[in-house]
Amino acid sequence: MVLDKNTAKKTAELLLQINAIKLKPENPFTWASGWKSPIYCDNRILLSYPIIRNFIKDEMAKQVESLYGKPDIIAGVATGAIGIGALVADVMGLPFIYVRPEPKSHGRKNQIEGKLDENQTVVVIEDLISTGKSSLNAVDALREKGANVKGMLAIFTYGFETAASNFKEKDIKLNTLSSYEYLIEQASDTGYIKEEQLRTLMEWRTDPSKWLQ
Questions:
Q1: What are phi and psi of 81, to 5 degrees?
Q2: In terms of CB atoms within 10 Å, which of 66, 88, 151, 169 comes out highest?
Q3: What local confidence, expressed as pLDDT, does residue 1 receive?
Q4: DSSP SS3 for 57
Q5: pLDDT of residue 51
Q6: CA dist., res. 185 & res. 23, Å (int)
Q7: Residue range 5-210, CATH number
Q8: 94-100 contacts: CB < 8 A, separation 24 or more?
């Protein structure tokens, strides 16, 4: 769910501006899952642009407090959300931890890096939501350590139905700064994509797992 429409449009504009989101309907990308996609999103690039990263971190900090109050800890999902998560925690004056996809195979074998006490309230920061499985894996790890996970805030979501179902099943509230719908609207309004490209992007969105199969 997008909390603020103006922020959603501005975020989409900035991500397109720095090519964090690339749209190539005529030359699709292949995701790690094997899905063919006309869109590729790498929000980590925003860390290289101080003005843009400051906008994103400030908006995320405001929305965290608006949605969940001030938690005890901010947690980032490794690796994509470590940077932005740490920036949000800094703005809010809060401790920061991050969650690996799985425990390390050596050393202390931690999955959660940083200090987390039982029953502390946590808001999870994520850079991108596709199916939500990796994000919710982090939630599971936090809950196993006794954390009270208040919810998750991400920069961008594709808005897949499977993600909504996965978050509902885990009883986790998800909000994002922007979404696929706002991105496509912004790209169309600014002439970033042509009408036939827009049709392709909308077709992909209806059933991405089977597109071009």
A1: -105, 10
A2: 88
A3: 83
A4: helix
A5: 97
A6: 13
A7: 3.40.50.2020
A8: 94/70, 97/73, 97/122, 99/75, 99/124, 99/138, 99/141, 99/142
Strand order in the sheet with 148-157: 112-113, 96-99, 73-77, 121-129, 148-157, 174-179
DSSP letter at 20 equals S
CA separation for the pair 102, 85 (Å, rounded): 19
Q: How far apart are CA 105 and CA 21, in angstroms?
A: 33
Amino acid at 162: T
Residue 76: which of 3, 142, 173 has the closest Cα? 142
- Is 56:47 a contact under the CB 8 Å cutoff? no
Domain residue spans of the chain:
5-210
Contacts with 178 (C-beta within 8 Å, 6 or more apart), sequence order: 2, 7, 8, 9, 11, 12, 15, 155, 156, 157
Q: State the alpha helices, DSSP H only, in 75-209.
A: 82-92, 133-144, 161-169, 180-189, 195-206
State the chain's maximal CA–CA distance in angstroms.
54
Q: Which residue has the tokens 């978050």?
A: 167
Classify residue 198 as exposed, middle or buried by CB count within 10 Å of its CB (0-12, 13-18, 19+). middle
pTM confidence score: 0.93
Ranges of the chain with pLDDT below 50:
none
